[in-house]
Amino acid sequence: MKQFISVKDVVDINALVQKALAYKAAPLLDKHLGVGKRIGLLFLNPSLRTRLSTQVAAQNLGMEAIVFNVDKEGWALEFTEGAIMNGTTVEHIKDAAPVLGNYFDILCIRTFPGLLDQADDYSEKIINQFIQYAGIPVVSLESATLHPLQSLTDIITIQESMELTGSFKHKKPKVVLTWAPHIKAIPQCVSNSFSEWMNAWGEADFVIAHPVGYELSQKFTDGATIMHDQDAALKEADFVYVKNWSAFNAYGKVLCTDENWMLTNQKLALTNQAKVMHCLPVRRNVELSDEILDGPNSLVTKEASNRVWAAQAVLASILKSTH
Ligand code: CP
C-alpha cells in the first residue's frame, strides 16, 4: 500500500480486516517492523480517537510518532496556487510539505471541509497537495470528504461481531446507515466513506435512510438502497450505523432537525436485535439516546477501540511496501 486516502488504496478489504484482527489478538506481532521509522500526525482540526489510536498503532509497530497540531501551533498554511500571500497565511504548502517529507517516513493528515464551497471541498485540495509535495506515503486521518480509517474500523467491527455470533454463515447481514439529528452542520465524510467501503466490501445488504434533502453524493452511495422512511429501513436490520450529516446538494445546510430520527429502544425493536454503531463523538439525546448508548446493543466503545487495529494494519501495509 503506497498511501491510504480511500478504499481505492486497498487491494483486498477482507485481508486487511483479518490483518487488523490478528493485531488485536497479538498487538506486538510486528513490534520491530517500524523501528527507526518516524510518523508525523498533523492535525488541522481536533481529534481524540484518531490521534491516540494512530499513535498507539505506530508505537505497537516500533515507530516513533510525533503529533503536530498545525491549527494551534503551526504557521497558517496557504493552499492556493499562485497566491499573493499578503493576508493571514504565512507559509505555502509547496514549501512546508517537502520539509515534512524529509522529517518523516509516513505523514498523516486530518483536515475537515469548510462546508461552504462544495467544489472546493470535494476536490480534496488540501490532502492532495500534501500528497503532491511531501513525497512520502500519506494517510488520511479524515479529509474533506472521507474518513477511511473509521470505515475500515467499522467493517472490522461488523466482521468481528458477525464472527462472534456465528449467525451470518448463510446470509448477508443487513446494515443500515441512518441519518440522525444534530444542532450543527456536520461534514459528510464519515457517511460518504462508510457508504463507499460498504459498497466496495459487498458482503452486506446496505441501506441508507435519511430525510428528503440529505442525499449524499452518488459517487459514494451508488449500489446502496436509499430510503426516506426510517422505520421501514430499520426492519430486520442486523447493524444500525447512526450518523448525522449536513446536506450535500444544498451544500453544508441543516435542513431538518426532526428528533423523531433519533434512534430509541422503540425503534430498535423494529430490527433484528441490531447492534448499534457510531463513530463518536456523539451528542447524547440529540443524535443517539442514552438508552441505546448505555444499552446492551451498543458497539460504540468496541468500535472506537478497534481504531487501533485498523491504523496498525494500514501502517504495517505501508511499511511493508516501502521496505
Ligand atoms: N471517530 C473519530 O474520528 O473520532 P475523533 O474525531 O475523536 O478522532
Q: What can you tell me about this protein's structure?
A:
This protein is α/β, with parallel strands linked by helices and 323 residues long. It folds into two domains: 7-146 and 307-322, 3-Layer(aba) Sandwich (Rossmann fold), CATH 3.40.50.1370; 148-304, 3-Layer(aba) Sandwich (Rossmann fold), CATH 3.40.50. The protein has helices at 13-25, 49-60, 70-73, 93-103, 118-122, 125-134, 148-165, 189-201, 218-221, 230-234, 265-268, 290-293, 300-305, 307-321, and strands at 38-43, 64-68, 77-78, 91-92, 106-110, 138-140, 174-179, 205-209, 225-227, 239-243, 275-277. A five-stranded parallel β-sheet has the order 9-8-7-10-11. Bound molecules: phosphoric acid mono(formamide)ester. Phosphoric acid mono(formamide)ester (CP) binds at residues 47-50, 142, 150, 279-281.
